[in-house]
């Protein structure tokens, strides 16, 4: 097929007796206040003419932004509910899943806040996807650490349980999270705009979740120890004995 034939076929797809296409190139980013205003102004100038449409990724983002809050809240609530149920069945407890789900949800908020504070852009679609993926992917790290903590609490005090849980789970958590962080970060450098932002946000969110799990979760479990370890087979007597020796 020669160049002239290719051009004519492309022209037939873009220009007919009934329809034609006008391409506008701008220097605006994919999402943002400026491009949203530009699209709205373009639509206002066109008016409500029949058969005239403004089509682009940015136009789609404008439409999504109008229902974004409701969709995000719906996805957040559904994700939390289903993950809470799964974790509750795993531990046969209601307090532990509440703590773990709250921890991972905090990682999501920390990620979005960090992007906004640093001046980066957050695509609406990437937020919706990352919200679900991060909750499902990183909750495993919290489950692994908590499982070891509860296992050691049956025979050790709080401090030793935290240390032993670290020793048992840290290799699993770091190896798995490192793969997710590095792979998504590499893919972000080669993917298109939306996919790149999704991968980049997942990488940053996973890092935030791991930091919270390794440095914040142990303290939360220790603080809530009396509530979490309220069953009789945990080493309550051992804790009292250690406290009396220290005093």
Protein traits:
single chain, 247 residues, mainly alpha, Multidrug efflux transporter AcrB transmembrane fold, 10 helices, elongated
In short:
The protein is mainly alpha-helical and 247 residues long. It has ten helices and no strands.
Main sheet properties = none
* Bulk shape: elongated
Rg measurement, Å: 26 Å
Secondary-structure arrangement, i.e. CATH architecture? Up-down Bundle
Kindly report the average pLDDT value.
Answer: 81
The secondary-structure class comes to: mainly alpha
Order of helices and strands: HHHHHHHHHH
Q: Low-confidence segments, ≥5 residues, pLDDT <50?
A: 237-247
CATH class: Mainly Alpha
In which range does the helix fraction lie? over 70%
N-end to C-end Cα span: 90 Å
Structure summary, number of beta strands: 0
- CATH level-4 homologous superfamily: Multidrug efflux transporter AcrB transmembrane domain
Count of distinct structural domains: 1
Helical region count? 10
Tell me the β content: under 5%
CATH fold-level topology:
Multidrug efflux transporter AcrB transmembrane fold
């Amino acid at each position: 097929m020669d160049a002239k034939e290719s051009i004519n076929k492309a022209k037939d797809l873009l220009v007919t007796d009934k329809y034609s296409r006008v391409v506008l190139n701008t220097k605006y980013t994919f999402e943002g206040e400026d491009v949203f205003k530009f699209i709205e102004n373009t639509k206002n100038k066109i008016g409500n003419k029949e058969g005239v449409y403004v089509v682009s990724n940015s136009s789609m983002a404008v439409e999504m932004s109008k229902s974004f809050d409701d969709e995000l809240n719906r996805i957040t609530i559904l994700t939390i509910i289903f993950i809470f149920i799964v974790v509750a069945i795993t531990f046969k407890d209601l307090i532990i899943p509440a703590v773990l789900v709250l921890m991972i949800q905090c990682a999501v908020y920390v990620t979005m806040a960090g992007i906004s504070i640093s001046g980066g852009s957050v695509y609406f679609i990437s937020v919706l996807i990352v919200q679900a993926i991060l909750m499902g992917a990183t909750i495993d790290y919290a489950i692994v650490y908590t499982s070891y903590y509860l296992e050691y609490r049956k025979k050790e005090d709080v401090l030793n349980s935290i240390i032993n849980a670290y020793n048992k789970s840290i290799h699993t958590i770091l190896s798995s999270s490192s793969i997710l962080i590095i792979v998504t970060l590499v893919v972000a450098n080669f993917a298109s705009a939306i996919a790149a932002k999704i991968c980049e946000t997942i990488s940053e969110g996973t890092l935030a979740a791991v930091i919270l799990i390794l440095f914040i979760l142990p303290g939360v479990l220790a603080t809530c120890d009396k509530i979490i370890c309220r069953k009789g087979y945990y080493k309550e007597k051992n804790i009292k004995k250690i406290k009396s020796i220290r005093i």
